[in-house]
# Entry
Amino acid sequence: MDCFENISKTQNKPKNLENELTQLKQSLPKELWFNGTPMYLYQGFWAPKLDSILAFQNHFQAHDTDVFITSSRKTGTTWLKSLVYAICNRQNHPPSESPLLCHNPHELVPQLESTIYTKSEFPDLCKGKCPRLFGTHVPYQALPTSIKVSKCKIIYIFRNPLDTMISSWKFYQNVSDNKTLKPEMLDLYADMFCDGKMPFSPFEDHVSGYWKKSLEIPEKVLFVKYEDLKDGPVTELKRMADFLQCPFTTEEEETGLIDDIVNLCSFEKLKQVSEPNKSAKVYSTIQNDGFYRKGVVGDWVNFMSPSMAERFNTIMAKKFSGSGFMLP
# Structure
């Protein structure tokens, strides 16, 4: 399995660093999430697990060959991780023998701030094969400097905010420690989403940061829309492979390799793989099959009122005005 298994155990922080972290937290606005843990307004976004994010920012050293799957939560992260993994590893692991057939994509493409740096402030990442694949929800402006100045590749996935909000609302109800979030709290949850008081939010700022960089440095940042992946997965896979500088050959296209990857990473296949491993957990608070609900476009209409949708659309239209970005 091409994942990062050699992650050292948590080390104790020097007393002076603990004091500095405590002082920083005391100086920042704070909101409690549904699991009772604080989020801090840090560098323009609401940061959960601030200790891990700071460790990631301060100590991660990017390689020029690294690939980062970036996103807001519940925008298609799991799907994108599987696709990028399959594209980058197709020589050693063809679809019929892929580790994706027995492992969750989050195992193969670990999340930096919520997996790697929660276990150690100084993880050993030397065992990762080239290219190293990582995921993060951290906004562009808060990424470590080494990522910004290196020649690494960043792929960002966007999803319509209406579907994103409903997907995250459903997802968090299945997270075991979010005991105060109830199904009848949709209006409150929507208010929080619109106000930007969600992990790694405001959503529209998160999107804008990566969108602008995809225009400024297109050779480094690729912006992908969830809806485009659903409508034309073959076209989008070819675009990603070209961006990653490992384009599909004519022979690969003719033998149906791209279609095989699309099928391997389809919602139905990933969900099927998760079925025998329902009790397995990448994260301690949710089972692996909890990452798969419907995976459809437009499901928000089954939950949101017209007035709630209108509020969302007004906020997003105002925020993205003049940016050249069009909502799907």
About this structure: Residues 1-11 have pLDDT under 50 and may be disordered. The chain is about 45% helix and 10% strand. The CA atoms of residues 72 and 318 lie 19 Å apart. The first strand starts at residue 30 and ends at 32.
